[in-house]
Every structure is written in structure tokens, then in C-alpha cells.
């Protein structure tokens, strides 16, 4: 695949075949008059409705905004025009109601289409699809401004633009401002007072060297990855809960967050980073596919049982994936083409469904990450399982039934038996089963009980006081959709499972809600696992007991050596579950179903089948089909976007980096490089950066290096200038979009929280791992409540606070922390009284103010005045001036220090990055 | 070859020239805040249809009152939201055929609805009687509300897009079934600001039992700036962190604030006229005022006994008493000029069937009765109180729920399943017809039949009543000029007074 150097037009040759037919309908005398009377007023010329022209054959063949072909030569039944004129399309009856064409005219048009849509003089016209959208044109490395080299290029491009406005850069920022700025931008953490002092001294002596060293130190810091992971997680609205009704926690989803932190820390090439995230199961980066399922989803129980709703929910989940990919990688609002061609951008409805088809095999849910042979987790698990097998045999495996409790399900090992039917009788009056699987010795993983094996579940209704959904026992789905039975007094609830043919069986797996067990945590769980007796139907039609739960228990408990073995077995199971591969919410993969265009976005309105493909105008035809495997689809998608000539991938990423560094993108709409987005304020600069990113001009430099790109940006003069206001700049470029100053801004929620914890000296800088919790353990359908958001276990970087969709953390949500519902390429910055109340009165702010005071006092040997100075240093990185010091000294000494701390963490100087 | 003009582009119709980013506004940093800049991302001129109206938000005064798009009597809005889906056929939508066909299979019965297999038609569990001068048939489940039938404008032909609660709540309250969109209250506050700068502009009064199923979505800011989220408190629980921590005195607070003012004043010298810095300073003043004004407004004990009696804080279940207090709080907030008050009658702490909200899949007779006991009297008293004080003249009242319930029971059951294709809500007050019923569901209340209205239409109408054009009130987010009504919705003119 190649992207042309100038973006090529893709010609399609259509038509031609009609010429050989004998046309019976004459366009000029039979069709044109109908169109002219009823249609042409709206459907011709440049302001045509729905972008459809009826007097122009290519337009008819291509279709209008709906993206559906209006006329398919030879096939009126496939022609959208026919549906419209027959008033088969609700709300889109054409011509409108009272003007409906006569049956005779409709028949004429149908025949005309059948004969080939003949319009004399237009039969050789080609349909050209083309776009002049700037971001769809290839990146061409621009000339460097006169006198500039790769080191000064950024500044040179900026100065060219500033010069046009009669502006220039501000004076350089002070050492203190510069260090705070670059530290926060690169790592999200402020410098310590000691680091500030030593940097100021070094900077005074040799500014260039001191600053470069500082930048390199910060880039090498393990906290760099944490900072940049936060930005990436925002864009893809990654969170550790599902959203929707029960908003369940996603078990082990955090391993994806750690993948992202490490990727930035190790300066994984951006191309590899993208490849991992869509195809990590093939690149040895299993956790990375958490990317695909970063958006919210509605679990089955909240979708309900109606087939239409179930199909819609699946389409919505796929759309969440498309949104993630579109916003983060492509910088396009792809989802706008879900119901019709994109209103502004060169993305057709076919492009949307072709792109979605890449991810047709992806499902929201957890899977066991696979570890390569030799990986410590894999080695340990193999060893544990080998021992487990040996213990099983000592317990009588294959000779007597063995019950194993795997927490999420029970596994029952049976002596091999061949039977046509099984009967399960619960040992308790309540019988809840979401799935019961039956396996045999021949194919260890084939579930012989699955409904697709034509297995029948039979129940005796008379035995039940409550009986719901026995068909869920073997529908192949885990979760809340379960069989529920409650026995009548004196009866034992049971059901029978009849196989089509006699089968040999030796193992069962049964659960009440395996979905919850595998995919979520922190739930107040209800029912325990089902235990039952099992009987098999003999050839003589008599039921024979093959496993008796109570007897099996009694046997083990009755002999001390068996009891010891059973305990050992339980320990091994527990260790496998804790130390082996852990099921993690990083997506599930399966064989993709064929994908179709959903007309008007509705899964109930399937049209053309589509193969996985990138945007047609960006050479997206990768020669894939509906048969292409899920793995290959995702890998091909990755290869398409990371092609060095792809005009969006590099531009979107360098612009995003720029935005986080300078507060505004060169393209201000960082996730919309389309027509409705903003154009680049300096396209030469953007394209220069994109070129450098993909193919660096310096021979030793690494391609797609995020760190190198960031380094070049923060080493620029533009970054190092002061943020002080200037009249001329304010007048001509108020927002400093052209960077006549470094634009000051309020810091984000994370930086404020982390900075407060740094000031108190309590910030635990440990990297990665499970998130810290501020929430309760809840019931399935309850809302999460904030439990404790300030105690010692929360003293980690806020990146590690559980990211909960739409849950207010009662402090930092007010600071525009995203609710993770929608893609958030940029956070809004608002100022509200709730922020003030939270930072003044929250237990977090209060306890931290006290801890800062405590620290200052301890570090000042108990000297009150020095303590005040120290508080200024640890919070603001500077000493108080005389006025400030005096004001502080006037306070009542008992609480004075914590009040000073409280004031300072609320001050503008603290929360604004100059 | 064909010429450029004739070139058929899939995408051509909307391509148009754009003016430069920021080129259109000649504001200086003094007036133009960062928040504004962000809000102005993207170019409204690139969008089709009517030109968007994005309110000019001064970051120093994000809540400053802003003009409507056109004249309207409504200045404030009260939303009474009943999560869980109230059965229209048991309350306001009288269907004689349900008595006639009671116990039979309805024609065109779907085999499966949200929770599973369907049962037989069930007549309403409560008696219907004609009410007021209009003679509107309303059931005995809601006798207090029924007394005010002549003040209400019912909408019987509402339909929604989902039969699941969380998506339904999202749709009703944010205009989208998906997560993450701004709530109606956030949109109104974003558009109009508020008259009282000492109280939050948008208050979400949650049910005593907790928040509804979509939680904060129902009153959240979505992707709008956090300034426009609903502030969450009720008669029992103040907003988080409002109250001065116990170990501090008023003097301590004063010292903190004075110190802070001094630090901020000094810092401001480096950035004179910076709107964002000024905004933060102003926000602390407002927070200080709220610390007095919010407890004042929450203290309903001073209300006369007659009011307590009328609202029902003195009798009935504990939940009803608590809810009645919330209703009094709602009136007090509206009296003080709060722009949007959203009052919840139902929650979701346990998913309990009919226990925590109106969801009634089994034993609807008991569960709906239990919810109605809580909702009916206090809500009726609240609306009546607003009327008595003349506040209905400028207050729009919206009583709503996410969908209806089925005219038939669930198989072998005693409850009604979700019905997305017909449900009833009602409006009252400023700008709304009185004693009027709009639209009809079919003979069974199964599907909308006459003048079918979508949730988009409903929300478009609410915005219209607030003086806002739903096609123009927008916010640029991530490539799209977002609206409450997406790209849909028609104002239902028939309900306008």
C-alpha cells in the first residue's frame, strides 16, 4: 500500500454496459418530464437537497447524503430512489406525500433503471471522488525558513507568523518559572525547593546547558510516562467502570493504564504504540488492547431481552470503538458518518462501516492475557497446574466425583460415563445457574451441553414455586441472564439435560454469574455457587446417581489424609487464581460476523455488505474480505494507520503533543482535523513537525519518537519565554495562538492534587499497579459512593485514582476532571465556587494543610517564622516577601501554620502555571 | 472530463470557506477568557442549518444572566423527575379498552418485551374519575395531583428510543442514550446563567434514597465546562464541602480568606486584567456567600405549619416526609431565582423492584402505590404553592419519567414491563396551555397513535419555553456543534399558551 505524494483522485469507471441494451424507455421524453415536474426544483444544481442530483447520472449512481446508491443500473430493487418514490421510507417520502408519483410513473422509472439508467450524453461520465480537505493531503516537508536549522526550526516557523502580525517572542522566563513549567508539563510534578535552588544556580552560570540537562533528566524520569498517559487516557475516555446503569468496575483494566505509562517511559515508537493497542495480542503487548474497550458499554442485563435492543447495543459498542480510534488516532469525527455520509468531511457511510468492520471481532469484556513460554507468570502457573493434577489423582480423579471451588464457578470431575441425559438436583431450595457446561474426555474444551449441540433442558414445573428461564442454563452466555428456580415446600428443584446422542462425559463447570466474577470487583455479591446431585439416565431408562454432593464432601472430610490433600488442592487453586494469568478487562476477540452498512444507522436496516477497509480516499482498500480473520483485520488496520505516508496519523499526534505543551494545538480542535474543525494556525510548522516525527532529518534520530518530539518542543525559545502580558500581543492575538508569550493556564485536577501531596511530602511516588480506591463496595444496581478520598492509602499520584465514569469524587471532578463518558481530546477549564469550597473545606485540603504545616515545622527545627518561609517554599517554590510574612505572622499561632498552608493551596499562584 | 462545478463529490455540499480562527472576535484578554476560547473552538459558520448561538461566557462571571433567544414568560424551570418509569395507563392516560379486554391477549402482542415473555392485558389498578372543569380522567393513584388537572398540559403520545432505564434517563435528561452528554439543566444554565449570584444556578435535589440510575448524568455537565453542572443537595444533605470544617472557627476562615486575598492581589499584579485569575478570585467570594445562603435556604423549619401540612412533612411514610421537605426546598430555591431546579422522586440504591423508584415489574399494585404515596401530595402542594405565589407565571414546571409501562402484565406476573412507545408527561406554568391534553396513545396505551412526539420534540419544546432555539443553542465539542436535541426535534407548538 502506498499513499501518493500528492493525494490522488480515485476514478471509478461506471456505466457502459447499458449501451449494448436496446433501450425501450426514452429518458428525454419519458423520464425527464417526470423529474422536472416533481423533483428537479430541489435535486439539481449546487444547492441541491441531500446532495442528490437527478439530472446527473453519476450523482444517481453514487447516491446522496444517505450514502446509498440512488440508482443501480439493471437493479431497481437495489435502487434507493425506488424506495423513496414508492414511499417506503418513513419521513423521507419523495416527492412528499400529496405529490406521490402515479403508479404508472413509478413503473416507468423502475423500467428505466432496469434498462441501465440511460441518460443520453452522460453515459461515459466518470464519478470522481476527491477532496480538497487539507488534512487529507499528503504531508510534504516544507522548506525551512531562511537561516533556520533543525534546532531552530520551530522558533523560525513561529517567528515568521508572528512577524506578519508585527509581533515577536516575549523575553525569556525566569529560571524558577521555567523549571516549574517544564517540570509540570513533562512530569506533572512541581520541582522541590532544593531542585529549584540548584537549577537556578546552574542556570545563572550556563543557562543552555543547565536547561538541556534539566529537560533530559525530566524526559528520563519515570514520572514522564505517568503525565503523558493521563493525556492519552482522557482522549479515549478510559475508565475502570462500564458506565450505564450498574456502572460496574472493570476487573484488572488498570493493566492497560500501566502499559501506556511504560510505553511513554520507554519511548516506544508511536507506530508500535498504535500497533500494540489494536493488535497487542499479536505483538506481545496483551494489556495494550485495553485501548479498544476504553469507552463505556451497556452490559447485557441493562440492554434487556428484545432482539432489536440487543442488536442496537452491539452496534453502539462497535461505535464506541470507532469513536476511540477516530478521535485518538485519526483525529476525525468518524461517527458522524454512522447514519449518512459525513456532513462535512470526506467520510462516507461506507467508510464508517468498513472501518467498523476492522473491529467486528472485538467485544467488551475480559480475557486472560497470554504469556509467552518462559514468562515467570506462565512458568509458575504451569508448575501449579502440574501439581494440581497430581493432587487430583491422589484424591481419586477419574474414579470418584471431585468437587472443586474455583470461586467464580464449581468444577466437578466425574468418572467417565456415557449417557443420553443428565439430571441435576439442587441441594438447596434455591437453584440459580447462569451456565452449566458439560465436557467429555474426547474433546476437552467442547461444551457438550451448549444449545448449539441440540441439547434440551426439561423441567417439571410442578416442583417449583418460582421458575424462570431454564433455557439460560445452556445458552452459552454468562451473566445475569440465569435460570432461577425455587422449590415448593418439600420438593428439590431440578432440571434434566437431554443430549441428542449418547455422549461420554467426565467434567462439569457450573456457575451463578460467571460474568460478574470474571469481569468485575467490589460488588456486594449475592448468591453462592450452585451445588447439586447428578444422575445419568441409563439405557434401561433408570436414573443412576453419578455424583452426590454431600457424599463427596463427607468422604473427603472423613479421612484426614484426603482432607489434607483437599486443602492442598484448594490452596493450589487459590494460588493459580492469584498468581497465574488474571482475567483482565482488555477486550475479547472472536470470529467476526459479516459487516453491513446500516442504513440511517439502524441495525434493522442492513444494506450492502462491507469488507474491512480504511477510508476510500486514503487508499483504505486493503484487499480484505468478510472472511478475513479478526487478528488479521486489526493488524491490517494498524499497518494502514502507521504507514509513514498516512496524512493524519503523524499530524494528529504531533499536534496533540503541541497542545499539551503550549496549551493550544496548532490545530486547535485536536480531535477534529475535518472541515468543521479549526484549520492549522501554522500549517508549515505542523507539517514540518509531522515530517520530523515520521522521518527525522538527523540520521541518528529514531522515527516516531514521542520523547524526541517533545524534547524539540520544550527546547524551543517559544516554550522558554515569559508568560507576562504585553499590550501589543493582547490586542492582536489575545489567546497567544501565535505564541508571542507562553500562555498561562490553570493546572489540571491531577497536577493540583499531586502538587499538594508533594508539598506535604506525603506523595507516594510508586509506579503502577492497582488503582487506589475512594469508593465503597456496592450492590449491583446501586451507585458508587465516595468512601474516603483523603486518607493515607490515597496519597498516590492521581493517575492511580480509580477512574470511574460519571462518579463525582467530591473534590476534583469540579476541576473539570472528565466524566469519561465522551471522548475528551481537550478538557474545558472552568472556574466555579464549588472548586473553592472543595479546596477550602474538603477533608483532603484540611488534612493536607495540617500535614504541610507539620512538615514545615519539623524541617525548621520548630522555629515559627522559618516554618512560614518553608511553607511558601514547599507550596510555591519561593520565599514570602516581607508583607506576606508579616501578614502570616499576625495569625494566631495555634492554627496559624495550617491556615497559611490552606490559603496558599487555594491561591492563584499555586493553581496557575505561569 | 467534467469541470469543477460539475464534479460530483460525495462530500461537496457542505464545503465552504471559513474565516480564520479567532479572526472574528476582536476581544482582548481582559474580556476573553480561556474558557471562552475553548468554547469557540471550531467554526460555527461551517455548520449547516441555522447558525449556532454560543452564549458568551465571561469566565469572571460564568453565571451572569444572559439573554434568551426570543421573548418568553418562563424565567425558571422546575423539573420533577420520576425515575423507574411511571405507568401512564394507571395514572393519567385513561384507556377504557383495558377494562373491556382485561385478562385477554392483546392484538399484536409482542412475544417478548424488555424483561421477557408477555402476559395478558390488565385493567388499571386504580379507579379513574373526571377531574376539574376539563373533566380529565385521572386515577385515584394520584388524587392530589388530580385536583390540579386544570392547570396541567398532558402529553400522552411521547415515545423514547430505549426500554432500558439508564439509557432512558440519559435520553430524557441529556438528549442522548449514551453516556457523557450535558444535562438539560446544564444546557439551560450555560445558555442563561442565573439571576441570583449567591446561590447555585442549577440545583439537583436528589431523592432521600440517593441518586437515580444514571447517577450524575441526569444533572451533570457532560462535556460543558464544570461550571454548569447541577449542584447536588437536598433538604437533609448540604452540598459537599460547603460547611466549614468543625475544628475551624469563623475567625479562622476570615483569616484564611484575607490572606488568600492578599496573595492573589499580589499575584494579579503580574497579570493585570487576566480574566481567569479574576474569575478565581470572584469564585471565592461567591463560595463565601453560598456558605450563608445555602444553609439559609435549606432551613425549612421556619416555614409556617400550614405549609408543612400542605406539603405533608408531618404525615405518611418517612420517605414521603423527606421528599415533602425537598419539595419545600425546591420552592424556596425558585423563589430566590435559581434558574433550574431538578427534583428527583426515586433513586437506585439497590435496584429494588418498585422499592426505590417507580420500576414495577412485579406487584405493581403495591409498588406503584408506595411510590405514589411519596410523590403525589408533596408534588401537588409544590405546584399549587407556586401558583398561589404567582410564581407559575414565570416558572415552567415539567413532570416527567423515562418511559411508560405496558398495558399487559409480564408472563405469569403481577407487574408491567417497560413501554418505550407510549408514555405520559405533563407540563404546567409559564408559557404552557392549561387543562390541555396533547397527543394520544392507542386504545390500549401500547403505542403512540396521534401526534406522536419524541423525546427530542419534548426537549425542543422545553428549550423553546425557556426562550431558547434548540437548533441554535450549541457547544462545540470534538468536531461537532453539539445540541441537546442532536440533529432532531420539533417544537410542539400545540402545547404553547
How would you describe this structure to a colleague?
- The complex is a heterodimer of chains A (914) and B (497).
- Chain A is an alpha+beta fold and 914 residues long.
- Helix content of chain A is 39%, strand content 11%.
- In chain A, strands 4, 5, 7, 8, 11, 12 and 13 form a seven-stranded antiparallel sheet that branches.
- In chain A, helix 5 (153-164) runs antiparallel to helix 21 and helix 27 (843-859) crosses helix 30.
- Chain A is flat.
- The model of chain A is unreliable at 1-21 (pLDDT under 50).
- By secondary structure, chain B is α/β, with parallel strands linked by helices.
- Chain B has helices at 34-39, 97-100, 143-146, 165-174, 184-192, 250-270, 275-298, 305-311, 318-335, 364-388, 455-465; strands at 76-81, 112-113, 116-121, 128-131, 136-139, 152-159, 202-205, 231-232, 340-344, 395-400, 404-410, 416-419, 423-429, 436-438, 440-441, 448-450, 453-454, 475-477, 480-482.
- In chain B, strands 1, 6, 7, 8, 9, 10, 13, 14 and 17 form a nine-stranded mixed sheet that branches.
- Chain B is globular and about 80 Å long.
- The interface between A and B is large, with 131 and 119 residues.
Estimate the mean pLDDT confidence of chain A.
91
Which homologous superfamily in CATH is the superfamily of chain B?
Alkaline Phosphatase, subunit A
CATH topology of chain B: Alkaline Phosphatase, subunit A
Low-confidence stretches of chain B: 1-48
Helical stretch tally of chain A: 31
**Share of helical residues of chain B:** 25-40%
Q: What is the approximate shape of chain B?
A: globular
Strand content of chain B: 15-25%
Determine and state the CATH class of chain B: Alpha Beta
How far apart lie the N and C ends of chain A? 46 Å
Amino acid at each position: 500500500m502506498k499513499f501518493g505524494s500528492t493525494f490522488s483522485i480515485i476514478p471509478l469507471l461506471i456505466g457502459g454496459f447499458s449501451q449494448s441494451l436496446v433501450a425501450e424507455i426514452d429518458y428525454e421524453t419519458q423520464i425527464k418530464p417526470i423529474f422536472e415536474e416533481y423533483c428537479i426544483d430541489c435535486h439539481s444544481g449546487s444547492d441541491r437537497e441531500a446532495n442528490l442530483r437527478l439530472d446527473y447520472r453519476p450523482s444517481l449512481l453514487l447516491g446522496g447524503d444517505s450514502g446509498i446508491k440512488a440508482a443501480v443500473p439493471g437493479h431497481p430493487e437495489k435502487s434507493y430512489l425506488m424506495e423513496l418514490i414508492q414511499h417506503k421510507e418513513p419521513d423521507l417520502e419523495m416527492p412528499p406525500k400529496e405529490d406521490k408519483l402515479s403508479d404508472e410513473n413509478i413503473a416507468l422509472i423502475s423500467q428505466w433503471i432496469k434498462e441501465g439508467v440511460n441518460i443520453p450524453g452522460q453515459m461515459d461520465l466518470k464519478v470522481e471522488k476527491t477532496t480538497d480537505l487539507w488534512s487529507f493531503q499528503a504531508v510534504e516537508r516544507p522548506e525551512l525558513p531562511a537561516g533556520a536549522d533543525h534546532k531552530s526550526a520551530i522558533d523560525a516557523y513561529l517567528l515568521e507568523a508572528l512577524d506578519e502580525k508585527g509581533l515577536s517572542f516575549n523575553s525569556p522566563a525566569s529560571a524558577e518559572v521555567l523549571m516549574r513549567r517544564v517540570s509540570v508539563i513533562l512530569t506533572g510534578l512541581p520541582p522541590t525547593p532544593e531542585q529549584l535552588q540548584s537549577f537556578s544556580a546552574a542556570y545563572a552560570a550556563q543557562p543552555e546547558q543547565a536547561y538541556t540537562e534539566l529537560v533530559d533528566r525530566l524526559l528520563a524520569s519515570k514520572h514522564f510516562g505517568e503525565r503523558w498517559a493521563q493525556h492519552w487516557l482522557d482522549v479515549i475516555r478510559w475508565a475502570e467502570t462500564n458506565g450505564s446503569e450498574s456502572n460496574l468496575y472493570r476487573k484488572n483494566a488498570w493493566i492497560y493504564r500501566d502499559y501506556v505509562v511504560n510505553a511513554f517511559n520507554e519511548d516506544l515508537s508511536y507506530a508500535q504504540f498504535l500497533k500494540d493497542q489494536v493488535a497487542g495480542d499479536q505483538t506481545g503487548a496483551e494489556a495494550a488492547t485495553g485501548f479498544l474497550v476504553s469507552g463505556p458499554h451497556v452490559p447485557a442485563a441493562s440492554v434487556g431481552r428484545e432482539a432489536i435492543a440487543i442488536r442496537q447495543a452491539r452496534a453502539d459498542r462497535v461505535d464506541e470503538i470507532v469513536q476511540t480510534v477516530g478521535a485518538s488516532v485519526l483525529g476525525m469525527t468518524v461517527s458522524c458518518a454512522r447514519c449518512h455520509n459525513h456532513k462535512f468531511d470526506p467520510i462516507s457511510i461506507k467508510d464508517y462501516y468498513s472501518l467498523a468492520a476492522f473491529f467486528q471481532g472485538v467485544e467488551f469484556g475480559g480475557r486472560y492475557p497470554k504469556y509467552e513460554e518462559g514468562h515467570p507468570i506462565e512458568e509458575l502457573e504451569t508448575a501449579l497446574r502440574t501439581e494440581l493434577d497430581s493432587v487430583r489423582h491422589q484424591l481419586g480423579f477419574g474414579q470418584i466425583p471431585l468437587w472443586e471451588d474455583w470461586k467464580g464457578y464449581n468444577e466437578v470431575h466425574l468418572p467417565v460415563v456415557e449417557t443420553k441425559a443428565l439430571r441435576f438436583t439442587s441441594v438447596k431450595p434455591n437453584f440459580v445457574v447462569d451456565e452449566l457446561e458439560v465436557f467429555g474426555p474426547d474433546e476437552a474444551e467442547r461444551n457438550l451441553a451448549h444449545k448449539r449441540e441440540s441439547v434440551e433442558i426439561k423441567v417439571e414445573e410442578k416442583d417449583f414455586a418460582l421458575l424462570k428461564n431454564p433455557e439460560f442454563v445452556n445458552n452459552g452466555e454468562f451473566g445475569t441472564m440465569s435460570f432461577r428456580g425455587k422449590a415448593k415446600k418439600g420438593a428439590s428443584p431440578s432440571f434434566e439435560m437431554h443430549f441428542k446422542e449418547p455422549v461420554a462425559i467426565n467434567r462439569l463447570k457450573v456457575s451463578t454469574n460467571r460474568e460478574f466474577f470474571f469481569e468485575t470487583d467490589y460488588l456486594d455479591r449475592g448468591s453462592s455457587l450452585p451445588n447439586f446431585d447428578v444422575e445419568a439416565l441409563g439405557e434401561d431408562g433408570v436414573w443412576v446417581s453419578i455424583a452426590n454432593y454431600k457424599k463427596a464432601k463427607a468422604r473427603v472430610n472423613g479421612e484426614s489424609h484426603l482432607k489434607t490433600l483437599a486443602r492442598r488442592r484448594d490452596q493450589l487453586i487459590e494460588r493459580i487464581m492469584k498468581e497465574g494469568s488474571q482475567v483482565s478487562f482488555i477486550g475479547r476477540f472472536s470470529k467476526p460476523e459479516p459487516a453491513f452498512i446500516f442504513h440511517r444507522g439502524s441495525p434493522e436496516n442492513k444494506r450492502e455488505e462491507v469488507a474491512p477497509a480504511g477510508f476510500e480516499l486514503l487508499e483504505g482498500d486493503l484487499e480484505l474480505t468478510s472472511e478475513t480473520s479478526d487478528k488479521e483485520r486489526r493488524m491490517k488496520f494498524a499497518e494502514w494507520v502507521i504507514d509513514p505516508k498516512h496524512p493524519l496519523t503523524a499530524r494528529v499526534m504531533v499536534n496533540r503533543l503541541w497542545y499539551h505543551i503550549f496549551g493550544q494545538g496548532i490545530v486547535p480542535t485536536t480531535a477534529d482535523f475535518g472541515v468543521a474543525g479549526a484549520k492549522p494556525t501554522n500549517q508549515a510548522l505542523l507539517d514540518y513537525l509531522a515530517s520530523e516525527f515520521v522521518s527525522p532529518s538527523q540520521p541518528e534520530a529514531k522515527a516516531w519518537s514521542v520523547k524526541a518530539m517533545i524534547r524539540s518542543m520544550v527546547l524551543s525559545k517559544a516554550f522558554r519565554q515569559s508568560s507576562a502580558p504585553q499590550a501589543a500581543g493582547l490586542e492582536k492575538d489575545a489567546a497567544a495562538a501565535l505564541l508571542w508569550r507562553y500562555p498561562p493556564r490553570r493546572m489540571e485536577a491531577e497536577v493540583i492534587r499531586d502538587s499538594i501531596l508533594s508539598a506535604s511530602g506525603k506523595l507516594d511516588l510508586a509506579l503502577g499497579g492497582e488503582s487506589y480506591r475512594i469508593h465503597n463496595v456496592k450492590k449491583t444496581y446501586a451507585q458508587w459512593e465516595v468512601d474516603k478520598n483523603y486518607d493515607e492509602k490515597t496519597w498516590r499520584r492521581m493517575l492511580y485514582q480509580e477512574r470511574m465514569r460519571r462518579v463525582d469524587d467530591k473534590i476534583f471532578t469540579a476541576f473539570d476532571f472528565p466524566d469519561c463518558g465522551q471522548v475528551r481530546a481537550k478538557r474545558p477549564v472552568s472556574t466555579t465556587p464549588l472548586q473553592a469550597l472543595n479546596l477550602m473545606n474538603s477533608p483532603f485540603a484540611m488534612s493536607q494543610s495540617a500535614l504541610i504545616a507539620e512538615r514545615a515545622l519539623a524541617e525548621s527545627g520548630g522555629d515559627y517564622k522559618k516554618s512560614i518561609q518553608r511553607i511558601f517554599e514547599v507550596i510555591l517554590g519561593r520565599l514570602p516577601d516581607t508583607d506576606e510574612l508579616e501578614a502570616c505572622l499576625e495569625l494566631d499561632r495555634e492554627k496559624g501554620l495550617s491556615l497559611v498552608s490552606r490559603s496558599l493551596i487555594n491561591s492563584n499562584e499555586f493553581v496557575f502555571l505561569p | 472530463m467534467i469541470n469543477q462545478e460539475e464534479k460530483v463529490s460525495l462530500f461537496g455540499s457542505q464545503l465552504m470557506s471559513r474565516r480564520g480562527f479567532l479572526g472574528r472576535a476582536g476581544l482582548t484578554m481582559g474580556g476573553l477568557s480561556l474558557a471562552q476560547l475553548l468554547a469557540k473552538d471550531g467554526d460555527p459558520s461551517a455548520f449547516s442549518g441555522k447558525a449556532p448561538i454560543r452564549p458568551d461566557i465571561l469566565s469572571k462571571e460564568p453565571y451572569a444572566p444572559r439573554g434568551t433567544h426570543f421573548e418568553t414568560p418562563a424565567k425558571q424551570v422546575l423539573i420533577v423527575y420520576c425515575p423507574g418509569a411511571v405507568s401512564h395507563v394507571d395514572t393519567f392516560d385513561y384507556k377504557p379498552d383495558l377494562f373491556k379486554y382485561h385478562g385477554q391477549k392483546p392484538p399484536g402482542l409482542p412475544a417478548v418485551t424488555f424483561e421477557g415473555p408477555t402476559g395478558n392485558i390488565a385493567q388499571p389498578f386504580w379507579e379513574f374519575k373526571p377531574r376539574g372543569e376539563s373533566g380529565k380522567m385521572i386515577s385515584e393513584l394520584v388524587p392530589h395531583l388530580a385536583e390540579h388537572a386544570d392547570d396541567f398540559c398532558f402529553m400522552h403520545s411521547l415515545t423514547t428510543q430505549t426500554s432500558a432505564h439508564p439509557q432512558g434517563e440519559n435520553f430524557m435528561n441529556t438528549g442522548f442514550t449514551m453516556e457523557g452528554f450535558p444535562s438539560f439543566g446544564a444546557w439551560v444554565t450555560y445558555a442563561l446563567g442565573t439571576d441570583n449570584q449567591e446561590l447555585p444556578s442549577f440545583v439537583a435535589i436528589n431523592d432521600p434514597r440517593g441518586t437515580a440510575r444514571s447517577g450524575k448524568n441526569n444533572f451533570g455537565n457532560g462535556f460543558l465546562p464544570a461550571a454548569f453542572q447541577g449542584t447536588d443537595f437536598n433538604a437533609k444533605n448540604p452540598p459537599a464541602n460547603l460547611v466549614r470544617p468543625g475544628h475551624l472557627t469563623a475567625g479562622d476562615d476570615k483569616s484564611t480568606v484575607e490572606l488568600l486575598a492578599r496573595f492573589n492581589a499580589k499575584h494579579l499584579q503580574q497579570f493585570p486584567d487576566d480574566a481567569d485569575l479574576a474569575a478565581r478570585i470572584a469564585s471565592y467570594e461567591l463560595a463565601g456567600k453560598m456558605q450563608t445562603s445555602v444553609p439559609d435556604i435549606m432551613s425549612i423549619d421556619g416555614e409556617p405549619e400550614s405549609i408543612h401540612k400542605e406539603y405533608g412533612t408531618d404525615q405518611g411514610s418517612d420517605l414521603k416526609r423527606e421528599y415533602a421537605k425537598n419539595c419545600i426546598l425546591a420552592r424556596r430555591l425558585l423563589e430566590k431565582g435559581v434558574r433550574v431546579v431538578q427534583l428527583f422522586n426515586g433513586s437506585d440504591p439497590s435496584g429494588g423492584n418498585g422499592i426505590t423508584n417507580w420500576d414495577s415489574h412485579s406487584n405493581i399494585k403495591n409498588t406503584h402505590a408506595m411510590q405514589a404515596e411519596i410523590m403525589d401530595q408533596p408534588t401537588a402542594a409544590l405546584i399549587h404553592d407556586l401558583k398561589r405565589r404567582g410564581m407559575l407565571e414565570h416558572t415552567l414546571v415539567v413532570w416527567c419519567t423515562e418511559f411508560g409501562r405496558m398495558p399487559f402484565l409480564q408472563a405469569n406476573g403481577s407487574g408491567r414491563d417497560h413501554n418505550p412507545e407510549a408514555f405520559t408527561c405533563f407540563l404546567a406554568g409559564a408559557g404552557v396551555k392549561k387543562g390541555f391534553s396533547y397527543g394520544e396513545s392507542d386504545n390500549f396505551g401500547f403505542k403512540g397513535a396521534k401526534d406522536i412526539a419524541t423525546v427530542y420534540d419534548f426537549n425542543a419544546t422545553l428549550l423553546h419555553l425557556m426562550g431558547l432555539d434548540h437548533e441554535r443553542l450549541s457547544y462545540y465539542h470534538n468536531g461537532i456543534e453539539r445540541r441537546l436535541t442532536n440533529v432532531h426535534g420539533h417544537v410542539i407548538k400545540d402545547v404553547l399558551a
